[in-house]
């Protein structure tokens, strides 16, 4: 797929503070604290990113686990879903009813999940978001799949670069936070499958029409050559005289006088 995230994600739910989040400001961030629970899931908000061949955004995530049991022993994940219909559009339809494993499977399909706890109780993650087509939101969530110690987990997620806008937890489920950019029709058309299918169809039809016209012209030209090669005589052709002498240009015989 054109969208990949080589990262982990942010966290937050019961209270999420958004700072410096308006479009055009640098380093918008989300801060959150949540008490983990068995088979829990939390929508954490997110950011809107543009597109780039390398990466479109960089996030710094600070993790602070207050529990006694290492998170390595639990299945706690930071996951991301881009705003396309077959990603966030699909999982958002049953966000409250789908299982943790179903949500995690959807994130794994986009290579956008990271298990927490592998670096210790306190550490920082750097996330690079790759997105080669379109401009769209990225929704981030915290998942605890299975049993986990009920203890506080604090996070701060800061957009170091690339964020066009941000949105808070439990918002933008059915709409986009992305600003309207004056990118021209080509930016929108080039990322739409229907545009390329229509373009291919037009090229095929134009090629078939050109081939048909070329064949018709060659056929007409061939018929014209056949017609010009035959002798066309208008009127009655001259007849050769029967007198061989006259015909060969000999003078008439003169009768001798007696």
Description:
By secondary structure, the chain is of the alpha+beta class. The protein has 2 domains: 3-179, Jelly Rolls (Sandwich), CATH 2.60.120; 192-225. It contains 5 helices and 11 strands, in the order E-E-E-E-E-E-H-H-E-E-E-E-E-H-H-H. It has helices at 88-91, 100-109, 184-189, 193-229, 244-247, and strands at 3-6, 16-19, 29-35, 40-49, 57-65, 76-82, 113-115, 122-131, 136-144, 152-161, 163-167. Strands 1-8-5-10-3-2 form a 6-stranded antiparallel sheet, with no helix packed on it. The radius of gyration is 40 Å and the shape is elongated. The protein starts with a strand and ends in an 11-residue tail after the last helix. The model is unreliable at 1-25 (pLDDT under 50).
**CATH level 1 class label of the largest domain:** Mainly Beta
Largest sheet descriptor: 6 strands, antiparallel
Radius of gyration: 40 Å
Order of helices and strands: EEEEEEHHEEEEEHHH
Unreliable residue runs: 1-25
- Please report the number of helical segments: 5
Number of domains: 2
Strand order of the largest sheet: 1-8-5-10-3-2
Care to count the β-strands?
11
The quaternary organization reads as single chain
Estimated structural class? alpha+beta
Global shape: elongated
